[in-house]
Amino acid sequence: SNCVSFYKGVPVIRWSVNDRSGSFGVIFLDKNANETSLNHERGHNTQLMLLGPHNYLLRIFLPSALQLGNSSYYQKPWEITADLFGGVERKGTTKSDKSKGIWYLIISALFGPYAYWFLLGEI
């Protein structure tokens, strides 16, 4: 749609702020975004459901919004798991990258701030 819709039970709002999409219970989709972006953002909503709002905010949303780390944007562990949950396959993502993303999510869920150890050597 051009403004508001739903995708797999999640509200989707089209917007034109900073040419970026994002999600926090609602998917804010850039007006030029494609199906891959929509699926990726839906993957972030799955992360939110698994981690809860507080942990998601600190371990997924903020590192993503601040673009922490030196690796390319979609090679960061929180972005890799969003791709996995959203069914997005990106070129260049290896099994090792996927494993790192899954471990980041597990450690985020179980041990909170210790997940930031994944950023050592990248900042």
Describe this structure in words.
The longest helix has 17 residues, at 35-51. It is built from four helices and four strands, in the order ββββαααα. α1 crosses α2 and α1 (35-51) packs across α3. It is globular, with a radius of gyration of 14 Å. Strands 1-2-4-3 form a four-stranded mixed β-sheet, covered by helices on one side. By secondary structure, it is of the alpha+beta class. A hairpin with a 3-residue loop joins β3 (22-23) and β4. The model has no long low-confidence stretch (mean pLDDT 88). The protein is 46% helix and 13% strand.
Question: How are the SSEs ordered, and which strands pair?
Answer:
Layout: E1 4-7, E2 10-15, E3 22-23, E4 27-30, H1 35-51, H2 53-65, H3 77-86, H4 95-111
Parallel strand pairs: 2-4
Antiparallel strand pairs: 1-2, 3-4
Helix pairs in contact: 1-2, 1-3, 3-4
Describe this protein with a few key phrases.
123 residues; alpha+beta; 4-stranded mixed beta sheet; globular
